[in-house]
Design brief:
Length: 294
């Protein structure tokens, strides 16, 4: 109840139950199990960030899905992102028939994340049976639409055309292979001679972490051997250095390579360990990325 009051939220005291935690993770796990076993179990749990791991563990053990079976309301979305320990965690809220979306790494809030947007659309469509053939997400980067077509997802993202830039010394010293050209939008876009260069790039994380590009990163890219272009994406000061599949970096890569190769439809391959294939279209004001989710 203190958390609700501190945020100016009205509530019925008869419908709210307070819990006191000693060992945060251990207590929140056992208390959550006890809560769900009540004759009238809660429909939502409001919790402090340090109790997140225990609550999530208990719900997983009970095979309860969020938000289908129960809602979780945390004081700090960033803490949940840390608990998940993946490159980006998406949080969505449906309010007044609009879907609002935000993205967090384990360290910071991002202004855009294509991969997590696609994952959210897939979750809404396949798990929660979203009934329309498209979803419009309201985000910090404007409205992002995802269409469902022929078993694939078509995502419209804002275009960010990179401009010629100097390469910061810290980034240069962190790389074992130097780029041919350097550009800048939200991210630094470093252009290399070949796909072989991209595969062989090694980043010294200790050096790269000395620069703060919040919320951007470093993209290395070249023409591809069997696709139009390839890339990799690195985020300084992040616990997860290399992102496996980065939709937001293509906001710059697609218009760049579209101009270089003089074509509007392109195929790209992100050469991370997990990898990702992107079908891309360069349009006047945005880009379209088509892909699968599972």
């Amino acid at each position: 109840s203190n958390g609700l009051e501190s945020r100016g939220l009205s509530y019925d005291p008869d419908l709210v139950r307070n819990w006191k935690y000693n060992d945060a993770k251990l207590s929140s796990f056992h208390h959550t199990l006890e809560l769900i076993k009540l004759k009238n179990p809660p429909t939502a749990i409001l919790f402090y960030t340090e109790t997140a791991a225990g609550i999530i563990q208990a719900l997983h053990e009970l095979n309860l899905k969020v938000p289908k079976d129960i809602s979780l309301i945390c004081y700090d979305d960033l803490e949940i992102a840390k608990t998940n320990a993946v490159p980006e965690t998406a949080f969505y809220v449906i309010e007044d028939n609009k879907i609002y979306l935000r993205w967090f790494t384990p360290e910071i809030e991002m202004d855009l994340c294509g991969h997590a947007t696609l994952a959210t659309a897939h979750c809404l469509k396949e798990i929660y049976n979203y009934f329309k053939d498209f979803i419009n997400f309201h985000t910090a980067s404007g409205e992002i639409s995802v269409k469902f077509k022929n078993g694939k997802y078509q995502m419209s993202l804002p275009k960010r055309v990179p401009q010629v830039s100097d390469l910061p010394d810290i980034i240069s010293r962190s790389l074992n292979i130097q780029p041919l050209e350097c550009y800048k939008s939200r991210d630094y876009v470093l252009v290399y001679h070949s796909e072989n260069d991209i595969n062989n790039i090694i980043v010294d994380k200790e050096i790269l972490d000395k620069i703060n590009l919040d919320p951007g990163g470093v993209v290395v890219t070249s023409k591809g051997d069997s696709v139009d272009f390839v890339s990799r994406y690195f985020t300084p000061q992040s616990s997860i250095l290399e992102d496996p599949a980065t939709g937001s970096s293509h906001c710059s890569l697609v218009p760049f390579w579209s101009q270089k190769l003089n074509k509007t439809k392109l195929i790209s391959h992100q050469l991370s360990e997990r990898g990702g294939i992107f079908e891309c279209i360069n349009q006047d004001d945005n880009i379209i990325i088509t892909g699968n989710a599972k």
